[in-house]
Amino acid sequence: MDARFTDEQDEIRRTLRELLGKRCGPGELRAAVDTPAGHDPALWTTLAEQLGLPGLALPATYGGVGCTATELALACEETGRILAPTPLLATAVLAAPLLLALGTGAQRAELLPRIASGALTAALAVPGPALATALALTGHDPRGEWAGGGRAGGVQARRAEGGWQVYGQVDQVLDGHSAELLVVAAHAGGVARSRVLLFLVRGDAAGLTRVRQTALDATRPQGRIQLRHVPAELLGDETVDTLPALARLGDTAAACLAAEAVGAAGRVLERTVEYVGQREQFGRPVGSFQAVKHRLADAYVQVQAARSAAYYAAWAAAAEVTATAMVTATATATAREGTAGGLALAQALEALRRAAAEAIQLHGGIGFTWEHEAHLYFKRAAGDELLFGPVHRLRAHAADAAHVFEEAGP
């Protein structure tokens, strides 16, 4: 393994950081999250046209750049630095890989080029607060009970004249209120032989109601979707097993989320170090006090360790995950899901929470005010842990998947 970044990877990071620095400052960020969509469509268009960000990890055949999960994670690190509210996570990290892995040839040809160009945004809708379970980050559910179990609740699907219909409600869908395409996980087939399938629902479909939710992290907008016998298109065909595909996606998503959290942690720590070097108390900079140095040094070590873990998880995801592997994943492969990505995510979320907490305290009176950005970083850590954690469950599942606590045989 060569841990050095290539010139192309360094250029992606440099160019993206430069563009976001110009287009997504603190003022622009607050203005974007206050819009109905929760992000700036003009910025998303720029990221697509100038950098090809939505199609960064999509094959050139479908209009993408043809990079790997490593480059996508590096891009997420840069967007995480400034908490850029974009559809990158929902569209490029969660939805697009499923379309690529499970979609028919016609579905890929129709949807992926539009995603790569930035013309189409997408979101993954998983019933209940079960996204981490569906992605096999905090548990393994071979029957897909998180989708409703074929009973009341969750999302159900049934055959209708000319196709399928889905009905139910999903309360926490990243960008679900604004995405033009929803990838909805639903139970189909009745209680006795129900199974989880993925369906494509257009944003303007009849019977679909969407409302933006008030989220803890305003820079990570969420929507509630209600489906009342909404016409839907099956993603792929009924022979495809979606659960291993979701589990494979989980490791890549965790690596990208870990990189994003590391970017945020590094940035908020940089700002704190800069501030304590300027703020004076008792006639000397606050940062010159030994106790403050120790706290910041500990936070720095934690962030750097999390960064190394995130980079390794991204490299591992790029080395192991392909479209074919997502479709033909074996039980053995599924058992390994979430180990590298899940552990990296747990470490990154802890590092971000620690760095953000230190920022709030060491910025003094201004640190906890609404006007300062420190609270946004803390809310990102807490919000991501609610969606994809908690940290102790990420670690526990990784340990179970690696058989850490199983007794050795005779």
Give the tally of β-strands: 9
Which stretches are poorly predicted, pLDDT < 50 over at least 5 residues? 322-338
How big is the Rg? 21 Å
H and E order: HHHHHHEHEEEEEEHEEHHHHHH
Largest sheet properties: 5 strands, mixed, barrel
End-to-end Cα distance: 35 Å
Which class best fits the helix and strand makeup? Answer: alpha+beta
Shape by Cα distribution: globular
Strand order of the main beta sheet, please? 2-3-7-5-4
Total of helices? 14
Query: Percent of residues in helical segments?
Result: 40-55%
Task: Write up this protein.
With 410 residues, the protein is an alpha+beta fold. It has 14 helices and nine strands. The strands form two sheets. The protein has a five-stranded mixed beta barrel. Helix 12 runs antiparallel to helix 13. The longest helix has 37 residues.
